[in-house]
Amino acid sequence: MTVSTPLLDTIEFPADLRKLNPAQLPQLVDELRAETIDAASQTGGHFGAGLGVAELTVALHYVFNTPQDRLIWDVSHQAYPHKILTGRRELIRKIRQRDGLYGFTKRTESDYDPFGAAHSSTSISAGLGMAVARDLLGDDNNVICVIGDGAMSAGMAYEAMNNAGALDSRLVVVLNDNGMSIAPAVGALTNYLSWLVSSRSFLSLRDIAKQLAKRFPRGFQTAAARADEYARGMLFGGTLFEELGFYYVGPIDGHDIDTLVPVLENVRDADQLGPILVHVVTEKGKGNPFGKEHEEKYHAVGKFDPGTGEMFKAKSNAPSYTSIFASALINEAEKDQRIVAITAAMPSGTGIDKFAEQFPERSFDVGIAEQHAVTFAAGLATEGFKPFAAIYSTFLQRAYDQVVHDVALQKLPVRFAIDRAGLVGQDGPTHAGSYDLAYLSCLPDMVVMAASDEAELIHMVATAAAIDDGPCAFRYPRGEGVGVDMPEEGIPLDIGKGRIVKEGNKVALLSLGARLQECLVAADQLDGQGLSTSVADARFAKPLDADLLERLVNEHEVLITIEEGSIGGFGSHVLHHLANNNLLRNGTTIRPMFLPDRFVEHGAPAEQYRDAALEANHIVEEVFLALNHDSKVLELKAKA
Is the pLDDT of residue 96 over 90? Predict the structure, then answer.
């Protein structure tokens, strides 16, 4: 489907946009929204948030002098229209693809991306840092932070606002309220009042009134202050932000560009104010082809027909790991009323929405507040409940102190269900689950498991439910399972015990997690080369299976460990154990394989694992390197 965009075709950078007259902006918005829909239909990706800010994106670039004025998009999954207007339109149909645009803002991609973001609630902190740096340098550019889509539910945003109010640096925060969670419906009257409150005339009158009030008795001053608060706060919902030190403007209809532009111009020119919050109400997914009944559906999408909204989805014979986890947890909860589930604003992404359908009173979505989620779970554990905190690996990083201080230190039996472990494809390094093995396995008394397939995941859910004397975690990848036979119910595993999957006598491949299938493929290739190969599934990163390790080392010439995690994880623990037990002296060559010590760029999952050198052919090469068969390695590389 080709969209007609005659006005958008004249815009390469925001400087071109600023040459338009205001009457042309509504047409540009319509074309920008149509272009965003058409591009997303070909690539998939985050979708709804960008459609909701088409007017706001145009208005911000029209009013402010970007990139000299810093424009920061919180989370930045709403930045597709921003990318189209900032010199990247020709690449927008390769977004989230290998060597294409990143799905979020990225400093190395464009000068119009002053801050890289993909986790929520960072924009105000970063923007305040930029504003203070500007003040220290004596510059006069604007700093604008756009935050919303749930990001205001995280404490970090309020920490930053509190600091900004105290410092009183000039900073503009645009609250993109696309959930109607704060403001009532807006209309012509509130739009006009927002313009009035942000105007120079109102600001001047307000200052005059304050000066006059100082000449009257204290009681009159208090009454005047209360009247001012009512006029700008109680009437419009800004009291909280005013208490944090922000001058509040809003709410404004975020789809009325004729209002947005003059209000933002007033804000831009209000030099005497410190931090300002502009409250903009938008409709997430505005103009999407799916319909309002599918609001969560259009947050992130695969490829689709832009005319009908029909999704194009490859068929799979195996269920997703997320759905398997949800079913297994529901089965365990049916047997144990103490099991509760917690998610941090990702109910469908973690499968907790399915759990909530069965057990609504035992399911808790705490918003984008991972720190709170972990300590909330700890509190539940102190009272005898069995909390399962289902959090993506990359988001659990945000709550590490709580994992250490509130859970591990007190040996509380919180169970961490870690979705999206390993590389995650098009979402790239900001969302990759690369570090949980390293940052959890170093904690005393923490049990850490990794599922090699969907059947193992079911058993690990049962194992976590059975552990009641300390914390545990089990990790599993994004996407579909491998198609193994499924058990009728989970059976708790022996803690710290792995399993031999294939017997051999020369080479041992010890896998932790979902690279097991690649290990089996590599073993077949090695057997064909005359190298009898064992394959073992470690199951546990902590505690390690000491007996299994000693057997593999003593009975094989080469031991390779394979994991979907960073340096400092499973392989490091294996080497520490072997060194401490004098098991590195018998001549066995031991080599760890893990994610490279760099951030793996976005692309299809297979492309990422090829880049990370964790496919079957890479395992075979590693074995020949261990055996000093350099000529064989060169031969294999030539065939690749």
Answer: no
